[in-house]
Amino acid sequence: MFLWVGKTKAPYARLGVEEYLGRVRRYQPCRIVTVSEERQDSRYSMAHRVERDSARILSRLGDLEPAFVLVIDPRGQDTNSRDLADLLRRVCYEDSRRLVFVVGGPDGLSSRVRDRADHVLGLSHLTFPHDMARLLLAEQVYRALTIIHGRPYDR
After folding, report:
1. Which ranges of the chain would DSSP assign to H, the alpha helix?
2. Total-model pTM
């Protein structure tokens, strides 16, 4: 499951995410759960928006327990596709909990969400548009599943 804040707005990213999640479903059931994004309002600080978005994420995670929560965050652990495949193999095929990938809003996540995570993963040291990060995550999950299943996609 993918849990993220707000809709994927960029058409290229929306189409790409749909394409890769369609491929992921060949191996594992998955869906997207979207929590509403706090509106940009000059009355509220960025920290306030992050806390409000994070509270909605934590509320949804509470509904999904037990879950293995993998948070995407720039401060997360660097990894490669094969190590991600090893992690997904353990979680998807050996653990009885549901796997939930969490992607925060454009302003990030609160420490409360990172503290709830079973694993915090960084996609790159580069900065990407928010929608692009979702697309990259979907592609990497698909790539990891092809590695697990010995399919030729990973080259």
Report:
1. 11-24, 46-63, 81-94, 111-116, 130-148
2. 0.92
Domain at 2-148: CATH architecture:
3-Layer(aba) Sandwich (3.40)
Crossing angle of helices 11-24 and 130-148, in 10° steps, is: 20
Q: Determine the average pLDDT of the residues in 27-51.
A: 87
Q: Would you kindly state where each structural domain of the chain is located, as residue ranges? A: 2-148
Structure tokens at 124: 């790159």
For the stretch 63-91, pLDDT in tens is: 888 999 999 998 899 999 999 999 999 99
Tell me if 6 sits within 8 A of 50, measured CB to CB.
Answer: no
Nearest CA to 124 out of 63, 59, 69, 75 is that of: 75
Distance CA 145, CA 55 (A): 31
